[in-house]
User: Which sequence fits this backbone?
């Protein structure tokens, strides 16, 4: 008979994985329910934060601690500081990456609870190997290294049993029948080798070229630095994907559902091989879900395994999910797992305190399937009935009707979804090639969103399909023996009896309400959330404290471009015949100009402006005034102009950065902006004619971001507090440089980027009713064109 | 046969459907039995020899010396003329302005005057384009003056080009074109389409600035002008007359030339639009059918350009020159002769068919604000003594009222519609909260001065123009308009006249009296 809290009094417990779902619950429960113990938390320092800070932010601020905060009141911080010690380290590194102090602290601990793992079922093989397979062994080796006698309670998973039918007993994996004969050391070497191979393969010239092409396809002419970093990111992702695939196929080939179960199984084996004289208890939970009662009913952390599936179903995305209707979904509330682990810790400590000899390794499974099974059909019925009563609302405020499932095989569902993804991806690629912007581009972004959603659904089916098809029954004899040995008080305080609750109640009143709350889905037709979002973003953009608002011109404020203004200026003084010839020629040239523009905006401008060579300065100046009405204002987006003025009214500095020529924009738009940065042409020495050459590089691509940064520096403005408006992915450097980017009538690539990053998207249109000239040619005036001098247009 | 006067028809069972203008189109509506339809007098006879009439007017002016005696070598002569807002629709060439100004220039040339400026007196309207100036003045005048900068649009926002002349006894500031003020003689050439035009308003408004205009272009003045078309009861008129006095006292010598036109509004074959329906010939009916069928299939944009290209056959019925007030008395009488119709008693419901054109959308778009101004500003105020519709009555207007704006001509209208009307339609509040920021806006100023935009404050004036009607009426219903745009104006949309009449009964009670103002041609109702 063990009295849990008593056995743990004065004990110091070392916990890994405390920032995780189970770990957070463990820390909370130890602090609250075992007042006499102290905790040492091993945490990997973040890139910018210390281990201590991570605990404060990621663990102690979690709503799991609400109850404890209430109980302890003002003493909360002091009490935490007294009972928690944080040490920096990493279970993925030899010696746990502990420093001397950390090792010293570990040396004072009586027990180690190892709950750190990469729980993601699709983590790269080598990462899973380092943490899941080698982690437990590293802990015992470190303990041996410092001569510690502490016990180890290692959290594993029931699914180490693999894809089997029938009973899965509480025995070491390799003592069970049907377990493949694999050597974990060989697997480790092979996984590390695979990583190196994938890294090498990703650097082959043709691969690198492929990444560069892909980056360009996604971002367009965004400038070298952005494209380079995008290509590198794609390369890293590719290597990651290779490793994920490697993990999945290796696990599959050995009969495990995924890399997680496979590495965990080998990890158990490695631990048993390396344990030496360390007392070891292995706790194997099944699928951990939200809490039954502790710290409060429905408590959950993170968006876990079943939740995304459930939400996808409720959103109508998953029309089917494979599974066997009578199969058992082995789910266990997190607080029961916590109680099991604490009980195991208490027992290990009691043995050590009593000075008893080191017991053989014990395995305890905590799962529901054997005693209180939840059938797949029952779960589906519960979920369906709940969402029929509490539907999720779509963007149009319509309740989504959940589909009926027919329990098809995994292959069929996967096939359906794969076809869907393929079709959508094809449509998306086709759409991306069209020169669309604004509302149509939004449409393509929606297509992409839809494809991603289905993609995700497919991912769930691939990942979790095996779990709905499991026919193994996890035995819990050891668990029950332990449960039977507890007295009433401990049973109340640390309940881990999976028979005590009713699935109907758990799913309907505890789990699903918690899931929808965490997923932040719309459960009521409370106005349009999409609109509210853009309104909120717009408010941020127009907050008085913003510093600077930077605008692009073409397609952001006006639906026109440098080619049109050239055509307008050039034809204004041409005879009728020449005008038509000019217009036809311009039309014929359009595709090649467009292609050049897409390749490199700077080169395009430089070569295009050559057409102004020899143009008389005075004449262009005169005509440019008329261009204000005929081209700029005619093709303007009134809402855009209004926005510029709104910024000015709010006291923000406004800046126009454009590759358009000074003669076109400077005089015409200067009353609108505080400053204008544009392209300038040099003139002949007598100042009478333009040379067609720019005085400096045109402000395009990453140059814009630099110009903007220089401007902000010189004026003492902070870009983090600034807004930038642009329409194309080539303006990405500029948009990324500010705190509040706004995509205006974005073309497809930018639309997709804006959607992913949650940027404000504005759809500004020309004034309905405005003139719509067929050709961009100036109204005739009876004077000669600057082209006339040269004969035909250049 | 002398032209028939205007008259009021009472609809009975045998009355054919009544024509309602409906923007770039028209509708035939069966008005309830007992409704009244007011028709304008027929077109007055034209001057037989306009050139001679003009010459005679210049040589024998009213209360002034003959024009030749005021012209001398070395003098500064300025000729100001009405802008694109007059007449409606634009007249065929030669325009009345061209005829008069050519005559004036002939006399000036004969007298050896070489410092002559021509100014389009557009106040805060948009600048006229080259094509529009050529149409109004003829190519000969344009080519002689424009290239050397002697023919231009008035610029009320050029501080150097404006002269402050003083204040009226009511504290109204008077500021007009410096060139006009400093000339030895200012000749003003006007086209008097409605009774409000002309007189001192020509110079005191046409050549002035925001600083001056705001004293009478405001809600208080408009609400005290009942109507502004009736000079004896118009505060707008009084204010302009007080300003005219200041201008006169400042020593500005004005030789006013006012012209009147008949109401021959539509060219063949669309002249049936101004006929009384029961007098339509078989050909008229055919034309109506054919044009309404084809218009129904024509895109809005094309319809607009077809209608905007209509040039009216109306022409001179009179020309008078001389001292401003004396000339204007004669002109006004002539306008009344063409437009006045006596109507007995007010009505519960007034119906209007709004045409495609108003003073501010020539070669442009009739945006919703202009629809409001045309209905509640212009047509509502075409009365003497009492409004046609009783206080608390309902105005039903027929117009498509599209949510469309001309970005070049009406940029501040777009923002007014989006920013101001979305918050309030109350003229007083609008005036108080928003007018100044629009009027003094740098960007609108820039567009007014260098582009072809109405001044930033202009949409406010449109709204003030309707403020008397807004105060007087119990409701406004727009038939066949874009519901969203109509609601933004604060009005109620209806899809048919029948629906509108039923909705109106909720306001004015059952069995209401209904009167239809059959315009154009323009008419003015003397409501006894």
Assistant:
């Amino acid at each position: 008979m063990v009295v849990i809290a008593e056995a743990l009094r004065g004990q110091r417990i070392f916990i890994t994985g405390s920032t995780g779902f189970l770990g957070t619950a463990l820390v909370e429960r130890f602090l609250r329910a075992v007042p006499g113990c102290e905790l040492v938390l091993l945490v990997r320092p973040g890139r910018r934060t210390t281990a201590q800070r991570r605990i404060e932010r990621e663990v102690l601020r979690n709503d799991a601690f609400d109850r404890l905060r209430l109980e302890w009141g003002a003493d909360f911080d002091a009490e935490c500081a007294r009972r928690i010690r944080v040490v920096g380290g990493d279970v993925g590194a030899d010696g746990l990456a502990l420093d001397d102090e950390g090792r010293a602290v570990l040396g004072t601990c009586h027990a180690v609870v190892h709950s750190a793992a990469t729980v993601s079922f699709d983590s790269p093989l080598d990462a899973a190997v380092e943490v899941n397979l080698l982690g437990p062994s590293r802990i015992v080796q470190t303990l041996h290294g410092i001569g510690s006698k502490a016990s180890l309670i290692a959290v594993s998973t029931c699914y180490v049993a693999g894809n089997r039918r029938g009973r899965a007993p509480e025995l070491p994996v390799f003592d069970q029948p049907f377990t493949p004969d694999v050597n974990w050391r060989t697997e480790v070497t092979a996984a590390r080798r695979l990583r190196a191979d994938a890294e090498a393969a990703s650097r082959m010239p043709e691969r690198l070229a492929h990444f560069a092409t892909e980056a360009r396809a996604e971002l367009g002419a965004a400038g070298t630095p952005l494209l380079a970093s995008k290509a590198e990111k794609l390369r890293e992702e590719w290597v990651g994907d290779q490793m994920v695939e490697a993990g999945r196929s290796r696990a599959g080939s050995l009969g495990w559902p995924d890399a997680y179960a496979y590495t965990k199984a080998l990890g158990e084996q490695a631990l048993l091989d390396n344990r030496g004289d360390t007392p070891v208890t292995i706790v194997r939970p099944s699928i951990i879900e939200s809490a039954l009662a502790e710290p409060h009913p429905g408590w959950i952390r993170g968006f876990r395994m079943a939740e995304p599936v459930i939400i996808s179903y409720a959103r109508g995305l998953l029309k089917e999910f494979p599974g066997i209707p009578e199969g058992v979904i082995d789910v266990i509330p997190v607080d029961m797992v916590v109680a099991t682990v604490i009980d195991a810790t208490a027992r290990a400590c009691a043995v050590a305190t009593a000075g008893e000899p080191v017991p053989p390794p014990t395995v305890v499974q905590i799962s529901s399937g054997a005693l209180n099974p939840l059938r797949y059909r029952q779960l589906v019925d519960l979920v369906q009935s709940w969402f029929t009563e509490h539907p999720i609302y779509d963007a149009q405020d319509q309740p989504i009707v959940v589909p009926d499932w027919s329990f098809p095989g995994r292959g069929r569902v996967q096939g359906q979804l794969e076809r869907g993804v393929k079709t959508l991806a094809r449509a998306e690629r086709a759409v991306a090639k069209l020169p669309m912007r604004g509302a149509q581009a939004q449409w393509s972004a929606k297509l992409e969103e839809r494809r991603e959603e289905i993609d995700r659904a497919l991912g769930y089916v691939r990942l979790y399909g095996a779990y709905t098809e499991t026919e193994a029954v996890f035995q819990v004899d050891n668990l029950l023996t332990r449960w039977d040995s507890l007295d009433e008080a401990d049973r109340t305080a640390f309940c881990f009896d999976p028979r005590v609750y009713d699935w109907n109640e758990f799913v309907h009143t505890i789990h699903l309400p918690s899931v929808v709350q965490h997923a932040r889905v719309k459960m009521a037709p409370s106005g349009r959330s999409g609109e509210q979002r853009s309104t909120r973003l717009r408010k941020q953009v127009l907050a008085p404290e913003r510093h600077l608002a930077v605008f692009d011109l073409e397609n952001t404020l006006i639906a026109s471009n440098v080619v049109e203004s050239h055509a307008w200026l050039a034809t204004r003084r041409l005879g009728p015949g020449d005008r038509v010839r000019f217009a036809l020629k311009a039309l014929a040239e359009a595709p090649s100009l467009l292609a050049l523009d897409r390749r490199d905006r700077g080169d395009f401008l430089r070569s295009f402006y050559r057409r102004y060579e020899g143009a008389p300065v005075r004449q262009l100046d005169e005509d440019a005034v008329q261009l204000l009405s005929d081209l700029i204002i005619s093709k303007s987006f009134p809402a855009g102009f209004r926005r510029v003025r709104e910024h000015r009214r709010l006291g923000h500095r406004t800046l126009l950065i454009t590759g358009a020529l000074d003669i076109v924009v400077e005089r015409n738009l200067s009353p609108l902006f505080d400053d204008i940065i544009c392209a300038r042409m040099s003139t002949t020495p007598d100042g009478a004619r333009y040379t067609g050459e720019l005085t400096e590089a045109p402000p395009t691509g990453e140059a814009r971001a630099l110009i903007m940064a220089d401007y902000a520096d010189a004026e003492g403005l902070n870009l983090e507090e600034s807004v930038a408006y642009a329409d194309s992915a080539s303006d990405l450097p500029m948009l990324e440089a500010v705190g509040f980017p706004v995509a205006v009538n974005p073309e497809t690539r930018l639309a997709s980027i804006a959607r992913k990053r949650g940027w404000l998207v504005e759809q500004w249109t020309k004034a309905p009713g405005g003139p719509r000239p067929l050709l961009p040619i100036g109204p005739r005036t009876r004077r000669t064109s600057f082209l006339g001098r040269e004969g035909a247009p250049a | 046969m002398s032209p028939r006067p205007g008259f009021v028809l009472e609809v009975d069972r045998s009355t054919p459907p009544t024509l309602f203008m409906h923007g770039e189109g028209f509708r035939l509506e069966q008005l309830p039995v007992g409704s009244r339809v007011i028709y304008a007098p027929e077109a007055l006879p034209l001057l037989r020899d306009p050139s001679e009439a003009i010459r005679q007017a210049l040589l024998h002016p009213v209360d002034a010396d003959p024009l030749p005696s005021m012209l001398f070598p070395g003098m500064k002569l300025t000729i100001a003329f009405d802008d694109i807002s007059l007449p409606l629709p634009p007249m065929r060439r030669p325009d009345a302005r061209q005829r008069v100004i050519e005559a004036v220039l002939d006399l000036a040339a004969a007298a050896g005057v070489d410092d002559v400026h021509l100014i389009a007196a557009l106040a805060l309207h948009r600048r006229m384009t080259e094509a529009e100036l050529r149409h109004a003045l003829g190519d000969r005048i344009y080519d002689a003056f424009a290239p050397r900068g002697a023919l231009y649009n008035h610029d009320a926002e050029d501080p150097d080009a404006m002269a402050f002349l003083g204040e009226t006894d009511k504290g109204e500031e008077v500021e007009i074109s410096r060139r006009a003020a400093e000339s030895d003689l200012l000749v003003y050439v006007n086209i008097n389409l409605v009774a409000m035009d002309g007189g001192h308003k020509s110079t005191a408004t046409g050549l002035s600035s925001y600083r001056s205009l705001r004293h009478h272009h405001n809600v208080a003045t408009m609400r005290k002008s009942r109507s502004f078309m009736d000079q004896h009861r118009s505060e707008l008129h009084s204010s302009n007359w007080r300003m005219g006095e200041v201008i006169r006292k400042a020593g500005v010598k004005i030789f006013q030339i006012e012209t009147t036109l008949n109401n021959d509004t539509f060219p063949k074959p669309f002249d049936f639009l101004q006929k009384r329906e029961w007098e339509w010939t078989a050909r008229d009916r055919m034309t109506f059918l054919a044009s309404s069928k084809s218009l129904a299939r024509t895109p809005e944009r094309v319809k607009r350009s077809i209608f905007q290209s209509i040039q009216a056959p109306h022409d001179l019925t009179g020309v008078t020159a001389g001292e401003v007030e004396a000339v204007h008395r004669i002109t006004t009488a002539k306008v009344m002769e063409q437009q006045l119709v006596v109507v007995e008693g007010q009505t519960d419901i007034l119906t209007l068919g709004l045409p495609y054109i108003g003073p501010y959308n020539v070669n442009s778009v009739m945006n919703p604000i202009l629809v409001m101004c045309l209905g509640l500003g212009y047509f509502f105020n075409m009365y003497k003594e009492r409004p046609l519709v009783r206080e608390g009555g309902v105005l039903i207007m027929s117009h498509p009222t599209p949510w469309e704006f001309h970005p070049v001509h009406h940029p501040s209208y777009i923002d007014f519609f989006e920013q101001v009307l979305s918050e309030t339609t109350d003229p007083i509040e609008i005036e108080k909260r928003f007018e100044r920021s629009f009027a003094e806006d740098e960007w609108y100023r820039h567009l007014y001065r260098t582009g072809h935009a109405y001044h930033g404050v202009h949409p406010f004036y449109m709204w003030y123009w309707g403020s008397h009607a807004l105060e007087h009426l119990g409701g406004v219903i727009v038939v066949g308009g874009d519901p969203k745009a109509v609601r933004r104006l604060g009005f109620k949309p209806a899809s048919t006249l029948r629906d509108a009449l039923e909705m109106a009964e909720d306001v004015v009670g059952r069995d209401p009296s209904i009167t239809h103002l059959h315009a154009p041609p323009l008419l003015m109702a003397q409501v006894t």
Q: What stands out?
A: Chain A touches chain B at residues 625, 628-630, 633-634, 636, 638-639, 641-642, 645, 668, 671-672, 766-772, 781 (CB under 8 Å). Chain A is about 50% helix and 10% strand. Chain A has four domains: 1-180+255-286+330-370+475-495, 188-249, 305-322+373-469+500-526, 537-790. Residues 142 and 679 of chain A are 65 Å apart (CA to CA).
